[in-house]
Known about the structure:
Layout: H1 3-7, H2 19-30, H3 35-38, H4 41-50, H5 56-66, H6 70-89, H7 94-105
Helix pairs in contact: 2-6
Amino acid sequence: MTKLENLLSLSSPKFPKYSSQLINLANMYSHATRSKNVGQMSGLMKEFKENGGRTFEDRKKWYLSKYPNAIDEATKKIMKKINEFKKVLNEIDEEIIRNWVFRESY
């Protein structure tokens, strides 16, 4: 649990091994959580505080009222990319890896 999670009395979800890294990679390629999709977080936090927001639950309700579809849309974009990863993972074999290692080694 992180310091922030402790302060906010939040529990951290448990993820299967490597899943967090793969989700992060899929997010990087899909751009799912870029500000144009989910809002600019620094500006949103300032606006939230200026409107009297205090708790995590307040923030969650406030955010979802401003961006009601953002979480679902970002999730769909990441899931699409994960499915693309799954497909290509089945195509990777030892020869592909050997060629990659050779190319990266010189």
